[in-house]
Amino acid sequence: MQTHFTDEQLQDPRLAQANDILRACVHCGFCTATCPTYQVLGDELDSPRGRIYLIKDMLESGRPADEKTVRHVDRCLSCLACMTTCPSGVHYMHLVDHARAHIEKTYRRPFTDRALRWLLARILPYPARFRLAMKAAKLGRPVAALIPDARLKAMLAMVPESVPKPSPNDAPQVFPAHGPRKMRVALLTGCAQRALDTDINDATIRLLRRLGCEVVIARGMGCCGALTHHMGKDGESHAQAARNIRAWNAEIQGEGLDAIVINTSGCGTTVKDYGHMFAGDPLAEAAQAVAARAVDISELLQRLDLPQGRGGMRVAYHAACSLQHGQQVKTAPKELLRQAGFEVVEPADPHLCCGSAGTYNLLQPEISAKLKARKIRTLEATAPQVIAAGNIGCMVQIGSGTGVPVVHTVELLDWATGGPKPRALG
After folding, report:
1. Dist CA 227 CA 147 (whole Å)
2. Residue 325: DSSP 8-state
3. Residues sharing a CB contact under 8 Å with residue 241, sequence separation 6 or more, in sequence order
4. pTM, entire model
5. End-to-end CA distance of the chain, in Å?
6. What residue ranges define each of the domains in the chain, with the CATH number in brackets?
7. What is the pLDDT of residue 11?
8. How far apart are CA 164 and CA 346, in angstroms?
């Protein structure tokens, strides 16, 4: 793609990078075939290629974002299926992240949009606040039909029937390995996950300890920054990420870390990108050290000696976009489930998003609902006894529309190799 940035503009490292990304695009349109929003809406501007044109025009002109560009960029899920499909290696993730940051700085959204985004950024990354908000939201369910805003209705609909109590395992501490120590690893306990489903971290810690890992919950760690990052709030997301980098770097410089384990794939995609996020920053070296050690739980389990299991159930595996496209981890979870004794089946079009995508199901509920319905149809068509996924957002999204139990992959692996039965299967 031909670009027309001035020499002065290209002195800005972010614009120089955007220029490189744009010039890699050859207009082939392969991305439209795998873009969920293009399939739902049928609008070229709601495809990666269309959004690339809008972003190019906005950045080249140096103008503030306009309503048209904002509308179509907001509709992007950041599922990154386009990056898996693209034959030219266009790094769409970094381009759309840059566009969102530009929008946040230059476009004044309507008051209700600003208020909603402010609220999400102040609640979701903080487990205690999120837990209180969910308890309060349950009181609003009886009047949900009277609420005119579809986004507020979507928020009420996503609140679980019961909110789990905080897990003591999520507090800063060190869990010794059972038997000889093979590895010393840090676990990202997450933010929303700690409020929505405490069983996931508990299962992860149990399984890793049985496999010979000393598990560190680092002091000072918090939200990875993904939620605010994808809303274009760079200041907030970088501050959140910096806290994690400092916390983990203290462990790296101390007793050392063989890996930083992440069991929420949306977080994993962001943590693995810390080196890019902090390029040119005083924390750049520490960020690169963290990113180099970041692994999805399924990647680490393949490096350990996971025993043969006694699963015996038919499991429909849902591949989270952030795992299969963002991190290119595609086979490990399925291989581990089979090794643990489960029969693994996959839905049709496994590359397509379920519509969760961080805060997308709350900010774009109509599109999200269509994607959810399609994903659930394809999953249920496999006649599973349980659905497994590696991302809490996907689990909540799918679980809100099906009667089939939805559990984290690590919960099944823990159960099949000696841990307790997942509560969802009880």
Report:
1. 25
2. I
3. 224, 225, 229, 270, 271, 274, 277, 278, 287
4. 0.94
5. 55
6. 9-106 (1.10.1060.10), 111-158 (no CATH), 168-301 (3.40.50), 306-425 (3.40.50.1860)
7. 96
8. 30
